[in-house]
Structures are given as structure tokens and as C-alpha cells.
Specification:
Layout (H helix, E strand, L loop, with lengths): L1 H21 L5 E14 L9 E13 L4 E20 L4 E25 L2 E18 L8 E3 L6 E12 L4 E10 L10 E12 L1
Amino acid sequence: MKKVILSYLLGLFAIIGANAQADSELVQIGVKGGVNFATVTGDGFESPDSRTSFNAGFVAEIPFSERFSIQPEVLYSGQGFDVKRFDQDNFLDNDENVEYQLDYIQIPILAKIYLVKGLNVQAGPQIGFKINEEIDYQPNDDAGDFDLDETEDIDISLAAGVEYKFDGGFFIQGRYNYGFTELIKDYDVHNSVFQVGVGFMF
């Protein structure tokens, strides 16, 4: 699995690098980060509470015209969901949630269309490589982690959102990701993530 991830990343950066060398005035590379509101969804059950985590990584923009670009990214993305802890002693909800943590390296390849100057919509496929899966009974402490390996290692999803890019390179964006992969085989359970964030293109 590590070799697959490394090969994918090397290929992606080779494409970006080749374009940057061919036309460095057009290609931009930057960084981004933001907040995730993640849960899982599917037919036949109620979605659990969302887990609040973060995303961070690198982004590139390869223009093909004044209004159309391709935007590849490589991101860490904290996903999963929260479950209310139940106190068996007094039958009351505990103040602290239990987190089911599903963390990924996500690689979206997005088509980016500018509606007017600065304002654009973007959508495209995304492949996620699972790097961590655990239940955390004490999310606000270093203790309480219980490692698992119940879900699929690779998650194929669709990412779509809107962004505003300022003249200086700073941008703000909102995005929704929906996973097409069944997280557990033969069960209709899929990742569902809202993201808001900021970034800067150099």
C-alpha cells in the first residue's frame, strides 16, 4: 500500500513539475488548510454526529484558458464521526464524545471554472488512502485510543465546492465530499464531509 501511495504522489508531482517548467508563469502552487465536519451516511440508519477535525496540504492550479483550470491537491483529512458516550452508572449522557477516527491522505483532481473574476466552482474525483482508524474514548487527552482495521483502505469520492480567489493569491473555499466506496463491504456506509478553509497560492 505504501508503494502505491508513493507512486501516485510521485506521478502527480511529476505532472505538476513538468507543467511548471514548461510555463512557470501560468502554473501556481500553494498551501491550504481548514476545518472538517465529517460523518458517515447511508440508507437504513441515522447518520451519527459529525466529528470536527481539520484538513491541510498542498494545492496546484494548472490553467488551460482564462476561465478553466485543473486543480490537483494532496491533503491530510481527518474524518469519521462522533458517538455520544453513555454513562451506565446514572443513565446520563457523558459530557465527552467518543470519536471514531478515520484519517486519510486525499488526492482530489478538480476541474475549476471561473464564473467571474475570482469566483469559481470546482468538482472532480478524489482518491483517499486510509492512514489511521481508531476509536478514541478520550478525544481531549492522549489516552483512550483503540486501533481498528474494519474499513476499506481506499476511498473513492466526489469533491465539489465553491471558492473565491483574491488578487494577491489568498483564497477562501467551501467544499463537500461524498464517498462512493462502501466503507464496510456489503454495508451501505459512506464518508460525508463538509470542509471550509483558506489557502495561499505562491
